[in-house]
Specification:
- This protein has 216 residues and is mostly helical.
- The chain has ten helices and two strands, in the order αββααααααααα.
- The chain has a two-stranded antiparallel sheet.
- Helix 7 packs across helix 8.
- The protein starts with 16 loop residues before the first helix and ends in a 17-residue tail after the last helix.
Length: 216
């Protein structure tokens, strides 16, 4: 955030979504400017991912959105081998909106659904996935209070932490209450990347009163 209160762009230049993923001309998708095929794969593999991962080392502090972007993309690799398939996926993604709280929750749930399917397919990740409705029921029974420590020894994608935050947020009345809600720590490095991807849609701006993950 700019010191005078104006929002500044974190990702700039050719790495912005509307430059490499979904270029527009007169409000419509510009197929002539869009990368495709090998050019698209080369850009993602050789430039984009390393650019995003570098935020981890250039960020001013571990609680910044830049650091968290870098932490996530340090652990990620592009699985697409066909730039034509990737182009089709990008066009579909560009048509989705995640501007409201409900839409951001949907994004988080989509991510967790992918983890669950990985576990069902016998791959790494998602072996012990807990559905969100069950998590919410458990939290309602436990009835945590602001100021209490909420510990999840098998945090995974941080579903319990995110839902506990949503359960407690309406109860927050003071600045101290909000500050207590913003203290989350994940120890395992790989798990931290998964948790951050799940928590960022809950509160994409660390300056807001949302789930904030310090360095792993």
């Amino acid at each position: 955030m700019h010191p005078l209160g104006r929002r500044t762009d974190v990702i700039t230049g050719k790495y912005r979504w509307d430059e490499w993923a979904a270029p527009k001309a007169n409000g419509s998708f510009d197929h002539n400017a869009a990368m495709i095929g090998d050019d698209l794969i080369a850009f993602v593999d050789q430039k984009l991912l390393s650019y995003l991962a570098a935020f981890r080392t250039t960020a001013t502090g571990p609680r910044t959105i830049e650091y968290k972007i870098g932490e996530v993309f340090t652990e990620l690799r592009n699985k697409f081998r066909s730039g034509y398939i990737l182009r089709d996926v990008l066009e579909v993604l560009d048509g989705l909106n995640f501007n409201t709280q409900d839409q951001r929750h949907e994004l988080s749930q989509l991510y967790e659904t992918r983890i669950r399917r990985m576990g069902n397919a016998g791959r790494n990740g998602g072996e012990y996935y807990t559905p969100r409705p069950l998590i919410r029921a458990m939290i309602k029974v436990i009835d945590p209070q602001i100021g209490e420590t909420i510990y999840d020894g098998a945090v995974g994608s941080a579903g319990f932490l995110c839902e506990a935050y949503e359960y407690l947020r309406p109860k927050a009345q003071t600045a101290a209450d909000y500050e207590n809600l913003a203290r989350v720590q994940v120890k395992a490095k790989v798990t931290c990347a998964e948790a951050e991807q799940s928590c960022l849609p809950v509160s994409p701006d660390p300056s807001s009163r949302g789930v904030v993950l310090p360095p792993c």
